[in-house]
């Protein structure tokens, strides 16, 4: 899924180039490229599909040159994750009705790639053998209020996989006190938005919980994979309900499983989370860019292009971002206002 | 005098383009251009001379296109103000041994141009009729520790000009308590570095107080204004003592006068002084640049190029400068360290 617009990373991200298409970590690869890399060895290259906005086709093409052209699915408008997942699910079903699928956002980061691959492989083994909907749940290491949580029932593991558990409920982003309660227990996990299921399972789930959307894509089956696909999608896709897969399926489905994992995951939803995710100096500063000099500066994130020299003196707890013709300096504690600054 | 390198305005200024060649105020003119403008109507255009480093010839040419080419004097190396003034004094003497001269830095600012012109005209009237060395002293409005002071003897004014007084002494940049004492009295003035004298007076002063330097330029008299001038200067100028006119002449000469004036002068020696000099918003912020948005920001100076959008949230008492490939953020209270940050 590579259709998001990520306004919280302004001015680094923009609607023209949202964060999945940016080298947010300063590692030489964009988040989309890092996401694709994570699946190498798990999913054959020809089985990777990218669903994005029509406007981002060229960015995907450029950043994933090995991706078959036909594996880029273009949404004519943004309709949140449920229609996105429905589209690619029916598209894959057309090719292989017995396919096994991992759905992943393309703008998250994972620190421990091996642990990630292990988790995905184990979850896929499970979903291939069952009709289970599996979510990857991240073991929390702090009472994060920026994530949704999954409450697992640790007494009820699958007979096939002892480390996959029934989901009791999904929890919205909690208040701090609630998050603190969650992490005192050991059965609450961050909802990573990474799902694993067979194509049959998810298509059936759409039929049960989103019958209109299911009918729409069922009706498109004949043109999927043909020359008429894009035109039909452009016509019909806007009629889909604008709804997340969490609301459309997850919170309604009966049998959902969680695979608790620890692979250093972050949704990079804010400058603060990026600061936490990259290497910090002894003073808690995260610098992304080669030519950054800090003096008496603590707990800041400084993000710049490689060519720029940045000198910061005397800041504590700020984000400093410089990109092209925009410079932003903002307290990290006020970063939720950044989207209002454009 | 346009040969300074102004390292305190980094990254706005650089050795390649020091502050006199920059539009520091964001008014569309460089400090050199503003300085030249201040003398229009006081000094005929053909009588304006610019002494600068050879490296800055093209900048002067470009910024003062009406200046006669022969009126740009090029120093082959930096030797402070005394040799600079000696050179142009003998050069002018060659043309007109009865000339009357104003010496001015090119990187200062003056808010009240009319008051400046009046002061210069009156001081020149005086210096034309006498053999007086006259300095323009600025009436202080605060106990500034960044300027040298001139102690005047207000009981001893010239019989020709009642508002021109004998100088008792020159004072180095004072400590704050000392500066506070100075401004309690009314006979201490900031040393503006603007001098007025006849060519005879200054040449004689060099002969008395800097005899070696005087002999050097006396020896060059035959080639000044000829094709051989630059070559001879390139050969001899480096032999001059590296010394300011303040040390070389002012502090030694017997008969020095001060013309106390108030024309909104600043030497723009620091980002703080620039902040004081330009229009501030209600929160004490001085913005130079068109596209600057401030939120919860006070007492800052933000300087950027016209094309750059800058958003600053939550800063108090900082300088933020963005120029080409350099960004500087620094507490104004620490700005004396900026020269160490390059």
Can you describe this structure in just a few lines?
The structure is a homodimer of 342-residue chains. With 342 residues, chain A is α/β, with parallel strands linked by helices.
How would you describe this protein?
- The structure is a homodimer of 342-residue chains.
- By secondary structure, chain A is α/β, with parallel strands linked by helices.
- Chain A has ten helices and 16 strands.
- Chain A has a five-stranded mixed β-barrel with strand order 5-8-6-7-9. A four-stranded mixed beta sheet of chain A has the order 11-13-15-16, covered by helices on one side. In chain A, strands 1-2 form a two-stranded parallel ribbon.
- In chain A, helix 2 links the parallel strand 1 and strand 2.
- In chain A, helix 3 crosses helix 6.
- The relative contact order of chain A is 0.15.
- The model of chain A has no long low-confidence stretch (mean pLDDT 94).
- The interface between A and B is medium-sized, with 27 and 27 residues.
- Strand 16 of chain A pairs parallel with strand 14 of chain B, so a sheet runs across the interface.
How does the SSE layout of this entry go?
The structure is a homodimer of 342-residue chains.
Chain A: H1 31-38, E1 50-53, H2 57-63, E2 72-75, H3 81-95, E3 100-103, E4 109-110, H4 113-129, E5 133-138, E6 149-157, E7 165-171, H5 176-184, E8 188-198, H6 199-209, H7 211-220, H8 229-236, H9 245-250, E9 256-261, E10 265-266, H10 271-277, E11 286-288, E12 292-295, E13 301-303, E14 309-313, E15 318-323, E16 326-331
Parallel strand pairs in A: 1-2, 5-9, 11-13, 12-14, 13-15
Antiparallel strand pairs in A: 3-8, 4-10, 5-8, 6-7, 6-8, 7-9, 15-16
């Amino acid at each position: 899924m590579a259709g998001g617009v990520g306004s919280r990373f302004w001015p680094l991200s923009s609607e023209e180039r949202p964060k999945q298409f940016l080298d947010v970590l300063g590692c030489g690869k964009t988040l989309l490229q890092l996401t694709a890399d994570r699946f190498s060895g798990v999913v054959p290259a020809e089985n990777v599909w990218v669903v994005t906005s029509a406007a981002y086709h060229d960015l995907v093409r450029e950043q994933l040159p090995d991706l078959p052209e036909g594996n880029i699915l273009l949404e004519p408008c943004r309709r949140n994750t449920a229609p996105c997942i429905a589209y690619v699910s029916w598209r894959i079903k057309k090719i292989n009705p017995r396919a096994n699928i991992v759905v992943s956002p393309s703008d998250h980061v994972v620190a421990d790639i091996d642990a990630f691959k292990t988790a995905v492989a184990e979850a896929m083994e499970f979903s291939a053998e069952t009709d289970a909907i599996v979510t990857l749940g991240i073991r929390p290491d702090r009472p994060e209020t920026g994530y949704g949580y999954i409450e697992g029932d640790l007494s009820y593991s699958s007979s096939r996989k002892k480390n996959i558990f029934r989901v009791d409920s999904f929890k919205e982003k909690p208040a701090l006190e609630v998050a603190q309660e969650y992490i005192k227990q050991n059965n609450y996990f961050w909802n990573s938005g990474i799902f694993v299921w067979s194509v049959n399972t998810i298509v059936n789930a759409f039929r049960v919980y989103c019958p209109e959307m299911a009918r729409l894509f069922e009706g498109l089956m004949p043109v999927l994979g043909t020359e008429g696909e894009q035109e039909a999608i452009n016509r019909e896709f806007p009629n889909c309900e604008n709804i997340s897969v969490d609301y459309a399926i997850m919170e309604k489905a009966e049998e959902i499983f969680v695979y608790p994992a620890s692979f250093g995951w972050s949704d990079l939803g804010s400058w603060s989370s990026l600061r936490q995710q990259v290497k910090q100096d002894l003073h808690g500063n995260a610098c992304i860019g080669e030519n950054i000099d800090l003096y008496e500066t603590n707990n800041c994130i400084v993000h710049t292009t490689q060519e720029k020299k940045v000198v910061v003196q005397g800041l504590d707890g700020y984000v400093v971002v410089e990109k092209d013709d925009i410079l932003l300096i903002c307290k990290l504690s006020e970063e939720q206002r950044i989207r209002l600054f454009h």
